[in-house]
Amino acid sequence: MIIADIHTHILPWLDDGPSDMKTAMDMLEAAYWNGTRHIVATSHFGGQGYWVAKEAIETGVASLSEELHARGLNIKLYAGHEVMLTPDVTNQLLAGNVNTINNAGFLLLELPFGVHIPNLHEVINDIAEATRLRIILAHPERYDYLAAHPETIAALTDLGVLIQINGDSLSGKNGRTAKHFAIKMLNKKQVHFVASDTHDPVHRPPSLKEAYTYVSQHYSSQTAKNLFYENAIRVINGRAPLINEK
Protein backbone atom coordinates (compact mmCIF):
# COMPACT_ATOMS: atom_id res chain seq x y z
CA MET A 1 0.00 0.00 0.00
CA ILE A 2 1.53 3.27 -1.20
CA ILE A 3 -0.39 6.51 -0.81
CA ALA A 4 -0.13 9.95 -2.38
CA ASP A 5 -2.02 12.62 -0.41
CA ILE A 6 -3.09 15.72 -2.36
CA HIS A 7 -4.81 17.62 0.49
CA THR A 8 -2.87 18.38 3.68
CA HIS A 9 -2.21 21.22 6.09
CA ILE A 10 1.25 20.01 6.99
CA LEU A 11 3.41 23.16 6.95
CA PRO A 12 4.05 24.76 10.36
CA TRP A 13 3.11 28.32 11.32
CA LEU A 14 1.17 29.15 8.13
CA ASP A 15 -2.50 28.35 8.73
CA ASP A 16 -4.61 26.17 11.04
CA GLY A 17 -2.24 23.25 10.61
CA PRO A 18 0.73 22.49 12.92
CA SER A 19 1.99 25.34 15.07
CA ASP A 20 5.63 24.21 15.15
CA MET A 21 8.18 22.08 13.33
CA LYS A 22 8.03 19.22 15.82
CA THR A 23 4.30 18.75 15.30
CA ALA A 24 4.73 18.89 11.54
CA MET A 25 7.41 16.22 11.67
CA ASP A 26 5.29 14.07 13.99
CA MET A 27 2.56 14.23 11.34
CA LEU A 28 4.95 13.35 8.54
CA GLU A 29 6.38 10.42 10.47
CA ALA A 30 2.86 9.11 11.14
CA ALA A 31 2.03 9.48 7.46
CA TYR A 32 5.20 7.63 6.45
CA TRP A 33 4.60 4.67 8.76
CA ASN A 34 1.09 4.39 7.36
CA GLY A 35 2.24 4.16 3.76
CA THR A 36 2.21 7.75 2.47
CA ARG A 37 5.13 8.58 0.20
CA HIS A 38 3.91 11.71 -1.61
CA ILE A 39 2.29 14.73 0.07
CA VAL A 40 1.00 17.99 -1.38
CA ALA A 41 1.10 20.87 1.10
CA THR A 42 -2.16 22.73 0.53
CA SER A 43 -2.24 25.61 2.99
CA HIS A 44 -5.33 27.81 2.87
CA PHE A 45 -5.70 30.66 0.43
CA GLY A 46 -8.82 32.48 1.57
CA GLY A 47 -10.18 29.63 3.64
CA GLN A 48 -10.56 30.06 7.42
CA GLY A 49 -9.28 33.61 7.06
CA TYR A 50 -5.77 32.56 5.95
CA TRP A 51 -4.13 33.92 2.79
CA VAL A 52 -0.87 31.99 2.68
CA ALA A 53 1.54 33.31 0.07
CA LYS A 54 3.04 31.06 -2.59
CA GLU A 55 6.54 31.87 -1.42
CA ALA A 56 5.75 30.82 2.14
CA ILE A 57 4.58 27.43 0.94
CA GLU A 58 7.63 26.93 -1.26
CA THR A 59 9.93 27.85 1.65
CA GLY A 60 8.04 25.52 3.99
CA VAL A 61 8.21 22.63 1.54
CA ALA A 62 11.97 23.10 1.13
CA SER A 63 12.52 23.25 4.90
CA LEU A 64 10.44 20.16 5.65
CA SER A 65 12.05 18.28 2.76
CA GLU A 66 15.49 18.90 4.29
CA GLU A 67 14.31 17.60 7.65
CA LEU A 68 12.75 14.52 6.04
CA HIS A 69 16.04 13.77 4.29
CA ALA A 70 17.96 14.20 7.54
CA ARG A 71 15.67 11.68 9.25
CA GLY A 72 15.79 9.22 6.37
CA LEU A 73 12.06 9.43 5.63
CA ASN A 74 11.36 8.88 1.96
CA ILE A 75 8.45 11.27 1.50
CA LYS A 76 8.34 13.69 -1.40
CA LEU A 77 6.64 17.03 -0.72
CA TYR A 78 5.01 19.32 -3.27
CA ALA A 79 3.64 22.86 -3.12
CA GLY A 80 -0.06 23.51 -3.48
CA HIS A 81 -2.95 25.54 -2.08
CA GLU A 82 -6.47 24.89 -0.91
CA VAL A 83 -8.24 27.85 -2.45
CA MET A 84 -11.54 29.23 -1.18
CA LEU A 85 -14.18 30.02 -3.77
CA THR A 86 -14.59 33.80 -3.51
CA PRO A 87 -15.75 36.44 -6.00
CA ASP A 88 -12.09 37.36 -6.56
CA VAL A 89 -10.69 33.87 -7.05
CA THR A 90 -10.36 34.08 -10.84
CA ASN A 91 -8.41 37.34 -10.60
CA GLN A 92 -6.12 35.82 -7.96
CA LEU A 93 -5.46 32.82 -10.18
CA LEU A 94 -4.80 34.89 -13.29
CA ALA A 95 -2.46 37.14 -11.29
CA GLY A 96 -0.37 34.08 -10.39
CA ASN A 97 -0.91 34.41 -6.65
CA VAL A 98 -1.97 30.80 -6.10
CA ASN A 99 -0.25 27.43 -6.29
CA THR A 100 -1.96 24.71 -8.22
CA ILE A 101 -0.99 21.16 -7.23
CA ASN A 102 2.75 21.03 -7.92
CA ASN A 103 1.97 23.93 -10.28
CA ALA A 104 0.91 21.38 -12.87
CA GLY A 105 -2.54 22.64 -13.83
CA PHE A 106 -4.91 21.17 -11.20
CA LEU A 107 -6.51 23.45 -8.60
CA LEU A 108 -7.83 22.28 -5.21
CA LEU A 109 -10.93 24.40 -4.57
CA GLU A 110 -12.99 24.55 -1.38
CA LEU A 111 -16.41 26.08 -0.83
CA PRO A 112 -17.66 28.25 2.03
CA PHE A 113 -19.46 26.20 4.64
CA GLY A 114 -23.14 26.86 5.26
CA VAL A 115 -23.59 28.92 2.10
CA HIS A 116 -25.69 27.86 -0.86
CA ILE A 117 -24.17 29.00 -4.15
CA PRO A 118 -26.77 29.09 -6.94
CA ASN A 119 -25.67 27.46 -10.21
CA LEU A 120 -22.47 26.22 -8.59
CA HIS A 121 -21.56 24.10 -11.59
CA GLU A 122 -21.68 27.17 -13.84
CA VAL A 123 -19.61 29.26 -11.41
CA ILE A 124 -16.88 26.62 -11.23
CA ASN A 125 -16.98 26.01 -14.97
CA ASP A 126 -16.45 29.74 -15.58
CA ILE A 127 -13.33 29.63 -13.36
CA ALA A 128 -11.99 26.60 -15.23
CA GLU A 129 -12.56 28.18 -18.63
CA ALA A 130 -11.03 31.53 -17.64
CA THR A 131 -7.91 29.99 -16.08
CA ARG A 132 -7.62 26.81 -18.17
CA LEU A 133 -7.23 24.82 -14.96
CA ARG A 134 -8.77 21.49 -14.00
CA ILE A 135 -10.74 21.91 -10.79
CA ILE A 136 -10.62 19.44 -7.92
CA LEU A 137 -13.47 20.04 -5.48
CA ALA A 138 -12.29 19.49 -1.89
CA HIS A 139 -14.43 17.32 0.43
CA PRO A 140 -17.92 17.97 -1.00
CA GLU A 141 -19.34 15.44 1.48
CA ARG A 142 -18.78 18.00 4.24
CA TYR A 143 -21.11 20.60 2.69
CA ASP A 144 -24.65 20.03 3.92
CA TYR A 145 -26.19 21.89 0.99
CA LEU A 146 -24.47 19.57 -1.50
CA ALA A 147 -25.53 16.50 0.47
CA ALA A 148 -29.11 17.77 0.19
CA HIS A 149 -28.70 18.29 -3.57
CA PRO A 150 -26.46 15.46 -4.81
CA GLU A 151 -27.49 16.16 -8.39
CA THR A 152 -25.06 19.09 -8.24
CA ILE A 153 -22.16 16.63 -8.05
CA ALA A 154 -23.37 14.96 -11.24
CA ALA A 155 -23.58 18.37 -12.94
CA LEU A 156 -20.03 19.20 -11.82
CA THR A 157 -18.48 15.90 -12.89
CA ASP A 158 -20.24 16.16 -16.24
CA LEU A 159 -18.29 19.40 -16.73
CA GLY A 160 -15.00 17.70 -15.84
CA VAL A 161 -14.72 18.74 -12.19
CA LEU A 162 -12.84 16.15 -10.14
CA ILE A 163 -13.97 15.08 -6.67
CA GLN A 164 -11.79 14.60 -3.56
CA ILE A 165 -13.28 13.18 -0.37
CA ASN A 166 -11.65 13.01 3.07
CA GLY A 167 -10.61 9.61 4.37
CA ASP A 168 -12.01 10.25 7.83
CA SER A 169 -15.46 10.88 6.36
CA LEU A 170 -15.67 7.16 5.60
CA SER A 171 -15.31 6.34 9.29
CA GLY A 172 -17.97 8.83 10.33
CA LYS A 173 -15.62 11.33 11.95
CA ASN A 174 -17.22 14.17 9.99
CA GLY A 175 -20.73 13.09 10.91
CA ARG A 176 -23.33 10.68 9.60
CA THR A 177 -24.41 12.90 6.70
CA ALA A 178 -20.85 13.26 5.42
CA LYS A 179 -20.25 9.51 5.65
CA HIS A 180 -23.45 8.62 3.79
CA PHE A 181 -22.81 11.22 1.09
CA ALA A 182 -19.20 10.07 0.61
CA ILE A 183 -20.35 6.48 0.22
CA LYS A 184 -23.10 7.55 -2.18
CA MET A 185 -20.53 9.31 -4.36
CA LEU A 186 -18.25 6.26 -4.23
CA ASN A 187 -21.14 4.03 -5.25
CA LYS A 188 -21.85 6.32 -8.21
CA LYS A 189 -18.13 6.33 -9.12
CA GLN A 190 -17.98 10.09 -8.79
CA VAL A 191 -14.88 10.14 -6.54
CA HIS A 192 -11.41 10.60 -8.04
CA PHE A 193 -9.25 11.05 -4.91
CA VAL A 194 -9.30 10.21 -1.21
CA ALA A 195 -7.05 12.50 0.86
CA SER A 196 -6.41 13.15 4.53
CA ASP A 197 -6.99 16.92 4.89
CA THR A 198 -4.75 16.50 7.92
CA HIS A 199 -4.32 19.43 10.32
CA ASP A 200 -2.75 17.83 13.40
CA PRO A 201 -1.48 14.45 14.65
CA VAL A 202 -4.42 13.69 16.97
CA HIS A 203 -7.81 15.09 15.93
CA ARG A 204 -7.17 15.26 12.17
CA PRO A 205 -4.21 12.91 11.64
CA PRO A 206 -2.50 12.15 8.32
CA SER A 207 -3.11 8.40 8.28
CA LEU A 208 -5.22 7.09 5.40
CA LYS A 209 -4.68 3.41 6.17
CA GLU A 210 -8.15 2.83 7.62
CA ALA A 211 -9.87 4.52 4.68
CA TYR A 212 -7.69 2.61 2.19
CA THR A 213 -8.73 -0.67 3.82
CA TYR A 214 -12.39 0.36 3.73
CA VAL A 215 -12.30 1.11 0.00
CA SER A 216 -10.35 -2.07 -0.76
CA GLN A 217 -12.85 -4.22 1.12
CA HIS A 218 -16.07 -2.55 -0.06
CA TYR A 219 -15.03 -1.87 -3.67
CA SER A 220 -11.75 -3.34 -4.92
CA SER A 221 -8.01 -3.17 -4.41
CA GLN A 222 -7.67 -1.51 -7.82
CA THR A 223 -10.21 1.16 -6.89
CA ALA A 224 -8.24 1.85 -3.71
CA LYS A 225 -5.00 2.10 -5.65
CA ASN A 226 -6.55 4.55 -8.11
CA LEU A 227 -8.18 6.78 -5.49
CA PHE A 228 -5.32 6.86 -2.98
CA TYR A 229 -2.31 6.79 -5.29
CA GLU A 230 -2.59 6.57 -9.06
CA ASN A 231 -4.82 9.58 -9.68
CA ALA A 232 -2.88 11.73 -7.24
CA ILE A 233 0.44 10.92 -8.90
CA ARG A 234 -1.09 11.70 -12.26
CA VAL A 235 -2.22 15.20 -11.29
CA ILE A 236 1.04 15.90 -9.46
CA ASN A 237 2.71 15.25 -12.81
CA GLY A 238 0.13 17.25 -14.77
CA ARG A 239 -1.66 14.25 -16.25
CA ALA A 240 -5.38 13.61 -16.35
CA PRO A 241 -6.59 11.12 -13.73
CA LEU A 242 -8.23 7.84 -14.53
CA ILE A 243 -11.93 8.38 -15.17
CA ASN A 244 -14.29 6.00 -13.42
CA GLU A 245 -16.50 3.86 -15.59
CA LYS A 246 -20.12 4.50 -14.68
Q: Provide a count of the helices.
A: 9
* Biggest pleated sheet: 6 strands, parallel
Q: Which ranges are low-confidence, i.e. pLDDT below 50, for 5 or more consecutive residues?
A: none
* Sheet/helix structural class: alpha/beta
* CATH homology group: Metal-dependent hydrolases
Q: For this structure, what is the CATH class? A: Alpha Beta
Helix content: 40-55%
Q: What is the β-strand count? A: 9
Kindly provide the radius of gyration, computed on alpha-carbon positions and rounded to a whole number of angstroms: 17 Å
What pattern of helices and strands is seen along the backbone?
EHEEHEEHEHEHHEHEHH
Cα distance spanning the termini: 25 Å
Sequence of strands across the biggest β-sheet? 3-5-6-7-8-9
Question: Mind sketching the topology for me?
Answer:
Blueprint: E1 3-8, H1 21-33, E2 36-41, E3 44-45, H2 54-71, E4 76-79, E5 82-84, H3 89-94, E6 106-110, H4 120-131, E7 134-138, H5 144-147, H6 151-158, E8 162-166, H7 176-187, E9 193-195, H8 209-218, H9 221-236
Parallel strand pairs: 1-2, 2-4, 3-5, 5-6, 6-7, 7-8, 8-9
Helix pairs in contact: 4-6, 8-9
